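Worked Example 4.2. Consider the chain below.
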Amino acid sequence: MLRMKLTPTIVITLLFFSCFAYSNQKVDIDSPEGWAMAFMTSSAQNLGQMQPHSVNLRDISISAELSSIPHLNREQQKIGFGGFKDEDLNKSPAFGKLRASFGLPWNLNAEMSWTPPLQINGSKPDGLWGAAISRPLIDNEKISIGLRLFLLRGGVIASVTCNEDKINFTPYTPQNPVGCIGKSDDKLQMDHEGAELFLSFNNSSATLPWISLASSNIDNSVQIDAPLEGGRELATIYSTGAIQTFSFGFNYDMGENWILNAASSYTPLDVQRPNDTSGNDNFWNVRVGLTIRY
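Applying the procedure from the previous section yields the following structure tokens:
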């Protein structure tokens, strides 16, 4: 029989690993965890604020956008352990971003976007930026058809696994079932890229309506860092898949190079839960923005 001598170094190493739990798990996009990641990524999806339009070289526009995030009921927030553990997903009721667009040759419009790292209810964007390029394909007196290619990188840091409410209760009670002793430092990575096809209806009025269909490939992950009474939980859960989003909106020309943007987006999402939530698991939001052209 092989015997190992327990030196002080080995004892310290064993104690270290006994206090930390590491795991790496891939889940389906329609699992409770995968659905939650896709739902939150939909809230940050880098969709167009207006239809692709003709631009001149070195045209510049700056815009700001604010979009709503639907509130989830308690059953919808049961996503941990395959749909049995409560997580705190209702962090912020809105998501915002700043954009800058630049006219390029061949009627191309390049765009960069950024979400400021403002902390709201324990959540904060982390290096969240996007890029896009668009171009009108058909543009006549009646209709305009355009294509926009986009991507987004970055994520959000939030105390989802162990929030402030849980740590106020005794570990391993019904209100704190996993034994949280401090707020977690979880990060959701919301990387995605896709294409969006626009159809707008040209007219002589100041209001220009449009509709669009977008398809995005999402590559999500959640890095969990939770202090528990039994040790620190360090885990990564990741999921990949594709989502489609339908949008409709309008641009209102306010004059003096100012444009009001308004839109609504709908993303169908499927989820396989152990129990019926009797809620709407699809993502639907409202977006408003303001653009100034130079």
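Helices lie at 8-18, 32-43. The CA atoms of residues 124 and 157 lie 5 Å apart. Compare this with Example 4.1 before moving on.
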